Amino acid sequence: MRITFLGTGGGRFTTISQRRMTGGFRIDDFNGKNYHVDPGPGGLVRSYQFGLDPKKLDGVFVSHAHTDHYVDAEVLIESMTRGMTKEHGIIMGSRSVFEGFKQWGPCVSKYHKTNSENLILGPNKTKVLDNMTIKGTKTVHGDPTCVGFQMEHDGFKLSYTADTKLFDKLSDYHKGANILIASVIRPGSSAIKGHMCSNNFAELINEVKPDLAIMTHFGLKMLNMNPVVEAKQISSKTGVKTIAAFDGMSLEINTSNPTKSKFISLKDNNARQFIQQENNSFQKVISRQENNADKKLISYTRDFIER
Ligand SMILES: [Zn+2]
Ligand SMILES: [Zn+2]
Question: I need a surface site. Which of 36, 85, 90, 276 has the fewest CB within 10 A?
Answer without folding.
Answer: 85
